[in-house]
Amino acid sequence: MSSPTSTPGGRKRGRNANPSTPSSEGPTSPPSQRRRGQDSSTGDLMPMPTSPATDMLSPSAPQDTSLFSSPRPSVLPNEVDMSSPLMYGTPMRGTPARQRPDLGSVRKAPQVDLQSEPPSADGAVASEPNAGQKLVIWGTDVNVGTCKEKFQRFLQRFIDPTSNEDENAGLDLNEPLYMQKLEEISVVGDPVLNVNCRHIQSFDAELYRQLISYPQEVIPTFDMAVNELFFERFPDSILEYQIQVRPYNALKTRNMRSLNPEDIDQLITISGMVIRTSQLIPEMQEAFFQCQVCAFSTRVEVDRGRIAEPAVCRNCNTTHSLALVHNRSAFSDKQMIKIQESPEDMPAGQTPHTTIVYAHNDLVDKVQPGDRVNITGIYRAVPMRVNPRQSNVKSVYKTHIDAIHFRKTDERRLHGLDEEAEQKLFTEDRVQTLKELAAKPDVYERLSSALAPSIYEHEDIKKGILLQLFGGTRKDFSQTGRGSFRAEVNILLCGDPGTSKSQLLQYVYNLVPRGQYTSGKGSSAVGLTAYVMKDPETRQLVLQTGALVLSDNGICCIDEFDKMSDNTRSVLHEVMEQQTLSIAKAGIICQLNARTAVLAAANPVESQWNPKKTTIENIQLPHTLLSRFDLIFLMLDPQDEAYDRRLAHHLVSLYYQSEEQMEEEFLDMAVLRDYIAYARTYINPRLSEEASQALIEAYVDMRKIGSGRGMVSAYPRQLESLIRLAEAHAKVRFSEKVETIDVEEAKRLHREALKQSATDPRTGFVDISILTTGMSATARKRKEEVAQALKKLIQAKGKTPAMKYQQLLEDLRGQSETAITKELFDEALRALADEDYLTVTGKTVRLLA
Amino acid sequence: MPSTHDWINNPLGVVEGMFAASQNNPSSGWEAKAVEFFKDRLKEKDAHTSVPSLNDVPLHYLKPNSLVKFRCLIQDMFDPEFYMGVYETVDPSTKVLRCGKYKDVTECGVDFNSRNTVTAERQTFYCVPIPGENPWFALILSHSYAGSSQARVVPSTSYVPSRQKRSYEEDDDMDDMDTQPQKQREPHTGALIPTEQHGNGDCKRLETEAPSSQMTPASHLDLNFPLPGEKGPSCLVKVYEDWDSFKLNDTLEVYGILSVSPALSALADEKDASSSLLDPAECMETAEEQRVHSPPASLVPRLHMLYAKTLPHNNPLLPSAPLEDNSAFLSSTLSEMASVRAELLTYLTHVLLGDALAAEYLILHLISNVYTRRDVLPLGKFTLNLSGCPTVASYTERFYQIIQQLVPCSYYLGMSLQNMNQMRLVPKKDYVANRLVSGALQLARNTSLFLDETQLEQGQLDTTGVRNVTALGNLISWQKVDYDFNYHQMEFPCNINVLIASEGRSLLPSDCQIHLQPQVGPATMEEYLSSIHMHPQASSQLNKLRIYLSVARLLDYSISDEMTKSVEDDFVDMRKDDPQSISAEDLHRMLVVARLLSLSLGQTSLSRDSWLRAKHIEALRRSRMEQHKCVNGNEP
Prior knowledge:
- The structure holds two protein chains of two kinds.
- By secondary structure, chain A is of the alpha/beta class.
- Chain A is 36% helix and 19% strand.
- In chain B, the strands form five sheets. In chain B, strands 1-4-5-7-6 form a five-stranded mixed β-barrel. Chain B has a five-stranded parallel sheet with strand order 11-14-17-10-18. A two-stranded antiparallel ribbon of chain B has the order 8-9.
- At the A-B interface, helix 2, strand 5, strand 6, strand 10 and strand 11 of A face strand 2, strand 4, helix 6, helix 8 and helix 14 of B.
- Strand 13 (396-408) of chain A pairs antiparallel with strand 2 of chain B, so a sheet runs across the interface.
């Protein structure tokens, strides 16, 4: 063995030999067994020596044994005590070891020889197969030498060719992973080695088990092993302190709710959201005492939160002459963090649980309230403080986690790295089910009918929304200067009130994990985008994000889109095409990602949809915004008997369906959710040759429709929409290739939507310019005709410099064979005014020139 | 086996007996047996009435560590806690194993190093009395006590009030003496002692005051009731089994062991004081959190749950067993249903100024209930907007008083600008104190929420106001409340009957709007209104109406295939005549009306007659709506 085997000496050894100390720490041992020296009968509870005067009051307290359990694991500064079997190896070239308060008060536990002194409670240990290794750490089955060897072997040999973690970016996957990391440490000088527990598990299951069960003992051993290896390999590197191993991703990843007494003192990983962080707490590690008489100084470690104040000066033998000197004592940082269950992990109808986490040293201030984190640490439970004058104890433990490793789960999102990192895990079975479903020929229809089953019919709308849920493929053209293309499909639903638009929105909002629901009436531009506010405590400027940013990679449902103020709506322009939000206020200038799909619902202005008017006229939305929607659907009440009958049947059965059928549906929703998540994460379809051809043809066809009548009926935006829809449809099929059938469906859906929304009510033709310019080509032509007619009329009147407005209107009406509305007349006047032909002042029309 | 009353007076004795007996036989599963034992005892005839109730009996009359019951709503759920399930005493001569279950405090010293210690887990719920319980409720309960069990309650507590008082003081004195040396040595405790004494003072004052009155919460401790002005004890309920099956806002009747040990608060205080010196990290549990999670036991007693049942309804007049199990009661009520309904209709017509149609709709509203949810859509809700309410002589308030007489739980929310801008409607998580601060919309199921929009005047709604109005809108449309967890919202489904009284059409959405047509002329209105008063009939009559409303809500309902067909035909026909006249929305409403109408007549399936009648009253209502179109700008 390379580490000095111990002859634990001095005080500590003595205490450990005390029979009352826990000699057994089986894997499931309750916390109470782990506390040593808890002598609740000890009369003199000595407060921390705040001043020498108080210290004098407690003369001959047998301090070494008077320590009763401190309610949290205290920190022992000099773990590197040579007597410990777990000391951090021989100090390497003067590189100091740094204490690991996160591991708690480890270990002066000696190694015991199983053969000669089997700890009575640890039968399990004795029966360990590797009983050849006689020395194990007391209370565990960990043999330091073996453990170290195993870990070194792991570091030297572990290769994970399939790794796709972001942390491993830039590393050669076919070389030993952790050796490369060590090299990185030698270059960068950040002495922290993060080790993925899953790697250890796949390499050596036994080592993994020990790590999970006895983290307090095993992690220091790992530290030792890694340092030996490191300094052997990079003898010249200079580190601030020795390398610390930080395991993460313990397989026991669970939510807070499933923590139970069996997890105490084990390595766990839980996920949650930080809700509160405390101020930094300086915690004394080593107290510095100086004799008031002879100025002799001595250092005393803090043991479980208590300082054993030396009663007698060793130099001059004066009693009670030692005073604590605060600014020469050693302190370490500590912070309390409260985390709360993530909302996704919670069963319905319950409130979230919270857990206290202590972060030490450089983990302090690593996380902020609001962060989603995965925390790896050791779960602790300590009894409530004993009241020295009462024999009664509150029979409740306090629990917390000593953090070893934080991993922010939303980190990637903030940095805009390649995400889709919804680390949603699918079990083999689930993937199989999903794939089976995908192989079915009618999967598209199946899924669309599973969407909001309580809403009747509107098949095409549901299909549109389904494609929106899947989204297109994200393409990056930043090299060629165009930035990334929008992959999200935006949909606008408009129609009569009471056609379950809101219900559809609510359903979508409940279905997708990152959905936001706002109502146009209640939201302001700020609420949608982001605002800057001053934190009342720190006076720091904090960026608070709004609905659009929050639904990055999700769907933002906006109800009552028409009721939104113009101001608010204008922020949507950027989001809906560029997919970013630019903020420039109060000293913060930034661009946030808002890759959100927008699903909006709007009511017609006149409460009832007027079929005689165009979409634009009906909903009074700026066409600049409308053209950013890929699909605009009208939800109208179709009026025919067969439909009515089916609707009635649907509704009645909705009200009186049996429980079982409802169960079935619920399952459908879960499957649908997984299906979408899977497709979004793993399927990235690309256009095939035929599909590209089909798209080109489709686009050319669309342009042709209008060109015959001198209108433009399609713009590049429509082509982009078609591509997105086709890609989304390929995703529905779990296909990596966009094929002709996808293009066909995209074309069909697009045409359906256009038919509904872009039909010119005057001609009955589909006219895309209604959406792109807000006016149909026919209407524009008509306007010009009227203007010309008016001009003629005025010219015919001869030299009259001024005319009555009303008179002119009546004259024109008398002359024209079609009805001239006042609006039309006004527009004609305006057109002529633009030509500088006349001006209108009040009720008089004056000719110019 | 323990004698009859031991299990009420000394339930811990029973538990400990079973624990001791199990020591020889470790696999006996004594815990399950203990729970079974109490369940069996409670099943016995009238046994549950002999258990004193925290709701009715003031806390200081109850014997500590006795079995009590508590009718409550789960207001908040705290984090689970680990406790010593089994521990060993430290005294070596009498080294025995003790059971820590159903207790807050261990007796005698604990040997922390013992190998026999067993750590177990339990969950704490913060429970408050059911919000909005109407006065008649308590009255009926106390009557039933006077009848059956008053005689038993007093002996079971076995304290004459005056002696009880002394014993408390003794406790306090001892406690004070305990803390005396501490006070001198550690000046920091000084800050805490006044609060403690304050608490004690409150206790004494209460006792000298009206002993029969309910416990008033001390002013300095916010007991976190959902509704302002509520009274009654709140309780920390410790749950040992199956806590996942309980949900927030569930209404429960908890049977458990009362723990009011003064040591609890003393321990908390001292711990706070001494630890702040020893260990700065301990201060992290802020004073607020401390106060919320371990309040003085004299104000917030602890209740260790042995058995709990969720209440299907909250009406003391009904048998507590499910209706199906009580066929005698059911059939007798059903047979009377039609006549009681007629009576109720007459009465409500009178109250609604002679408008029989509005009264009809009001009945439907009062028995409505969200019976299921289809994806996001709650089915069965029937929010009624009663427009055209006269604004004279505080009509709406009188009207509410009538409703209050009829339903077990209700709340009147005057939608004045001030209320909307200031009230906390939506519960919000307070991360400093680590608790869910309640709001007025945290209500038990089937509570009647009366929104008085006639109180609303012109003016500016601020941010809170807008949020409150949105919350009300969400409540009505989706029957859910989005609780504010600061970093995110969490949806809690609810089941609240909302009745909106307004002058014109309400600014809030509703399932059904009916305009009141008073048969009383404006001249005589004042006079008529003052003649409306509480139900003149005897309270037994009133009780009949109350039973009627609760039972109608609990009935099952179905619709035959034949009727389905006929409804479909009807719909198609109606659309044929005039497609504009009836939309899917209208069919939704008609199906609900038909359902409620059938139930109100005691019919458990839809009949042709009921359907026609539903169609008829809908037609009447719609024709009335036509006349009142465009009253204000809230039309879609």
